[in-house]
Design goal:
It contains 14 helices and eight strands. It is of the alpha/beta class. The protein has an eight-stranded parallel sheet with strand order 7-6-5-4-3-2-1-8. The longest helix is centred in the middle third of the chain and has 20 residues, at 150-169. The structure holds phosphoenolpyruvate (PEP) and magnesium ion. Magnesium ion binds at residues 145, 186, 207, 209-210. Its cofactor is Mg(2+). Its EC number is 2.7.3.9. One of its GO terms (molecular function) is phosphoenolpyruvate-protein phosphotransferase activity.
Length: 328
């Protein structure tokens, strides 16, 4: 089976009734791009940049960040790369910034992700400078984690334009026009405000890992309540659907890059909700593509409509299992 899946690498992901789905890879380390390409990734839908900041006492320099990003972009040979700015805090610790959980009353709700970058302005500027320099190497998009407020996007955009201006004056080559600036939708408030956020963001990436956690008030790392952590909860599905619809109204791209994007059983539901762009860990790509090739979009939409009338996560899981049965 592995060999036949490998042969799918250069086959586009198209449903039986001709709907094209983009399949991209989540990447956490520069050396992963080879595997992403080998598994048929059409781009990097989520580059987590935490690797540059973890397990060290000093922040990475602009040059170090630039070189790592350039290596990744070069490794993708012209395929687009979506670079997320530092998502520190919460369960992702960065000792150089003092984001240890003990220093925050509630790390998941504290100074993390884009909030931390906006507070440490030099850190944000350095990262944006490295990203913009890397944008000369190939198509790139910039993604902001844990946005909850339109002002956060405006502020980063202002910062990006200042950094770009400064680089241009120093005759340093960067992408022209500037890279699209998008946001993670991974907090319920952001999903509810998706129409408004679509006015300031160029694209959405739905992060179902955190969206599930914040919607259900279940810590991703808390074992005692892990049995309640469920992206199939109808409240989570509603927020995904709201976000997809808002993106469609605003004519901006939307992708899903949480774990569910690489779950062959969940993918038909995402497609039925209107998602056409999935980003997942590379090893899931062939299986997901295989499922999409056998899928009828019209049926996926019908099944999703039925599922969206349900209120019980258990019942939703059963309906989805019933849909997927003949494929697993
Ligand atoms: C998510 O929250 O779904 C996501 C993709 O980001 P991360 O897992 O890096 O928090
Ligand atoms: Mg997240």
């Amino acid at each position: 089976e592995v060999r036949s899946l490998a042969r799918l690498r250069d086959v586009p992901a198209v449903t039986k009734d001709d709907h094209r789905v983009a399949l991209q890879a989540n990447v956490e380390l520069p050396r992963e791009t080879g595997q992403a390409v080998a598994n048929g990734a059409e781009g990097v839908g989520l580059l987590r940049t935490e690797f540059l900041f973890m397990n060290r006492d000093e922040l990475p320099t602009e040059q170090e960040q630039y070189e790592a990003l350039a290596e990744i972009i070069d490794g993708m040979s012209g395929r687009p790369v979506t670079v997320r700015t530092l998502d520190a805090g919460g369960e992702k610790l960065v000792s150089a910034l003092g984001t240890a959980p003990s220093e925050s009353l509630n790390p998941a709700l504290g100074l993390r992700a884009i909030r931390l970058s906006l507070k440490h302005r030099d850190l944000l500027e350095t990262q944006l400078r490295a990203i913009l320099r890397a944008s000369a190497h190939g198509p790139l998009r910039i993604l902001l984690p844990m946005v909850t407020h339109p002002g956060e996007v405006r502020e980063v955009r202002r910062c990006m334009m200042e950094v770009a201006e400064e680089l241009k004056q120093r005759d340093i080559r960067i992408a022209d026009p500037l890279p699209p600036l998008g946001i993670m939708i991974e907090v319920p408030g952001a999903a509810l405000l998706a129409d408004g956020l679509a006015k300031v963001a160029d694209f959405f990436a739905i992060g179902t890992n955190d969206l599930t956690m914040y919607t259900l008030a279940i810590d991703r790392a808390e074992e005692q309540v892990a049995y309640l952590y469920n992206p199939l909860h109808p409240a989570v599905l509603k927020l995904i659907s709201l976000t997809v619809e808002a993106a469609r109204r605003a004519h901006i791209p939307v992708s899903v890059c949480g774990e569910v994007a690489g779950d062959v059983n969940f993918v038909p539901l995402l497609l039925g909700l209107g998602v056409r762009d999935l980003s997942m860990s590379s090893n899931a790509l062939p299986r997901v593509k295989n499922r999409i090739l056998q899928l009828d979009m019209a049926e996926a939409v019908r099944r999703a409509e039925t599922i969206m009338t349900q209120h019980d996560p258990g019942r939703i899981a059963m309906l989805l299992q019933d849909y997927n049965e003949r494929f697993t």
